[in-house]
Amino acid sequence: MYQQNKGDNKLKAKKLTLLLTLMVLLATVLSGCGGAAGGEPDTIKLGVIGPLTGDYSMYGTAVANAAQLAADEINAAGGIDGKQVEIIAYDSKGDKTEAVNAYNRLRDQDKIVALIGGTFSGTTLSIKEIAKADNMPVLTPTATNGEVTLDAANIFRACYTDPYQGSTAAVFAAEELKATKAAVLYNIEDPYSEGLAVAFDEQFSTIGTVTNYEGYTKNDADFRAILTKIAAEEPDVLFLPDYIAKVGVILSQVEELGLNVVAIGGDGWDGIEGDYAEVAEGHYFANHYAKTDESAIVQDFISAYEAKFESSPNALAALAYDSTFIMKSAIEAAGSTEAEAIITALAATDMSGVTGHVTFDENGDPIKSISIIQVVSGEHVLAAKVSGK
Amino acid sequence: MVLFLQQMINGLSVGSIYALIALGYTMVYGIIKLINFAHGELMMTGAYFAFLIVVTSGLPFLIVVPLSMLLAAVFSVVIERIAYKPIRKAPRISALITAIGVSLFLQNLAQVIFKADPKIMPELIDKRPIDIGPLQISTVTLTTLALAIVFMVILEIFIKKSKPGKAMRAVSEDKDAAILMGINVNRTISLTFAIGSALGALAGVLYAITYTQVFPTMGVMPGLKAFVAAVLGGIGFIPGAVLGGFTIGMVETFSRAYISSQWSDAIVFGLLIVVLLFKPTGILGRNEKEKV
Amino acid sequence: MSKQIKIKKLGINVSAIVLLYIILKSAITFGLITRYHQGIIIFIMINIILATSLNLATGFLGQLTLGHAGFMAVGAYASAITSIEVRALLPNMPDFMLLIISLIIAAIAAGIVGVLIGIPALRLRGDYLAIITLGFGEVIRVVINNMRGLTGGAQGLTGIPRIVKFDSVFWVTVFVVLILYRLTHSRQGRAIMSIREDEIAAEAVGIKTTHFKVMGFAFAAGLAGVGGGLYANYLAFLDPNTFNFMRSVEILVIVVLGGMGSLTGSIIAAIVLTIMPEALRSFADYRLLLYSFLLVVMMIFRPEGLFGRREFSFDGVKEKFFNKDKIQEKTNIS
Question: Whole-model pTM above 0.95?
Answer without folding.
Answer: no
